[in-house]
């Protein structure tokens, strides 16, 4: 319980500070969220709470509708989804967190936080085609995860609430990587569920680990991205305003529902977005090569 409180308290303080920073920026810039962003935030966070995930479908929609440039999709999405994800973290930590090994829970959260802080400047300074390539790969992995889930090929997991030391170290190290990738729009739900299930843990206990780590990491990394200002604040506020009530409805009213058909539909959309993003990344890489060769030729 002490370790759980040690995670809930900083999570609460972090989201409070994050909210103050975001509200101040919105007032200064007179940000008005778009109705479409509010709807996207509501739908994706509703199903995220039920286990679908929000990053892949949000990325697919933003790309499909061409609402913002590819480069700022990951950061905009991370900042916008952070408050709803943090709310999920509170709910799952309170409902299920007591059942998780506190060392594993706290270790994964801190590792993910560290990775998130280190990843924020990486995505800011990365070339556009690199961001596009990482997002495309993430979308392809997400599509594969949807297919595997629907075909009942996911590892069933076990009933463990803790891990042996070696596996615990691996899990904590992996969460560092998940934290870095969050900045590139790669959600940590799918890899976390797969990893912990393969390790024999109760899949339900993945939720407090995943949501707690994502919430803590998202608030810290989002503050950096707000400072960099390379995000679309209209989309950010829309995702947040739509997502928070959707999380509450899904967590306390709906709780669970058949989602197999939805996964197939999302998989098709995500695959399309992945291929478009991959094409853009390869085109951007080719342009960079041509520019570099032209520059080298001019110097010679």
Mean pLDDT: 84
Strand content: under 5%
| Radius of gyration, CA atoms, in whole angstroms | 19 Å
What's the tally of helices? 11
Distance between the termini: 67 Å
Number of strands: 0
Q: List segments where confidence is low: pLDDT < 50 over at least 5 consecutive residues.
A: none
The main sheet comes to: none
Which oligomerization state do the chains in this entry correspond to? single chain
The domain count comes to 1
* Helix-and-strand structural type: mainly alpha
Q: Report helical residue fraction.
A: over 70%
SSE pattern, N- to C-terminal: HHHHHHHHHHH
Cα shape: globular
What are the main properties of this structure?
single chain; 300 residues; mainly alpha; 11 helices
Tell me what the structure shows.
Helix content is 79%, strand content 0%. The chain contains 11 helices and no strands. The termini are far apart.
Summarize the structure.
By secondary structure, the chain is mainly alpha-helical.
């Amino acid at each position: 319980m002490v370790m759980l409180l040690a995670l809930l308290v900083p999570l609460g303080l972090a989201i409070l500070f994050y909210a103050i920073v975001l509200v101040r920026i919105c007032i200064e810039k007179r940000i008005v969220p778009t109705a479409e962003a509010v709807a996207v935030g509501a739908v994706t966070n509703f199903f995220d709470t039920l286990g679908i995930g929000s990053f892949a479908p949000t990325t697919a929609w933003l790309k499909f509708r061409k609402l913002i440039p590819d480069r700022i999709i990951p950061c905009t999405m991370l900042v916008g989804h952070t408050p709803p994800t943090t709310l999920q973290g509170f709910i799952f930590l309170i409902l299920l967190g007591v059942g998780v090994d506190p060392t594993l829970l706290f270790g994964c959260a801190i590792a993910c936080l560290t990775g998130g802080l280190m990843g924020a400047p990486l995505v800011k300074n990365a070339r556009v085609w690199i961001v596009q390539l990482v997002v495309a790969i993430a979308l392809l992995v997400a599509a594969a995860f949807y297919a595997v889930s629907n075909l009942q090929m996911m590892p069933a997991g076990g009933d463990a609430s803790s891990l042996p030391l070696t596996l615990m170290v691996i899990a904590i190290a992996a969460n560092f990587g998940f934290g870095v990738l969050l900045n590139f729009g790669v959600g940590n739900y799918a890899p976390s569920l797969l990893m912990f299930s393969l390790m024999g843990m109760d899949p339900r206990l993945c939720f407090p680990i995943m949501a707690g780590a994502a919430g803590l990491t998202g608030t810290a990394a989002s503050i950096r991205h707000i400072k960099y200002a390379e995000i679309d604040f209209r989309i950010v506020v829309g995702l947040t305003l739509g997502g928070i009530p959707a999380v509450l409805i899904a967590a306390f009213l709906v709780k669970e529902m058949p989602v197999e058909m939805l996964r197939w539909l999302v998989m098709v959309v995500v695959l399309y977005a992945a291929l478009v993003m991959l094409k853009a990344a390869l085109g951007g890489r080719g342009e960079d090569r041509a520019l570099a060769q032209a520059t080298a030729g001019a110097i010679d």
